[in-house]
Amino acid sequence: HVQLVESGGGSVQAGGSLRLSCVASGYTSELCSMGWFRQAPGNEREGVAAIRRYSGTTFYADSVKGRFTISQDNAKTTLYLQMNSLKPEDTAVYYCAAIIQCRANWNETGTYNYWGQGTQVTVS
Prior knowledge:
The chain has no helices and eleven strands.
């Protein structure tokens, strides 16, 4: 089993930056990929970015390309999301997620095995 704990959310003005962190603990060696998802009120949860843990390959939603950067530490147990040039439409609860067996479509929420509790990001 794996536990995920996010941190780093908060409130920021449009154009500002935030960095989210997600610490993974437990049997992390079984994980193929980790990612960030977000859910705004009234919307479905959507994929933001993901990273294949062993190859380092990254994936991004079109809406965040060029503004957000996903990365991991050398131990591959801490996931980051650097968010720059934030917009009001980025306001959402951001969730860290992890998947044991990588799939072709990185942003399918139903395929992820583990989820964090979420952290609020508000852009005004």
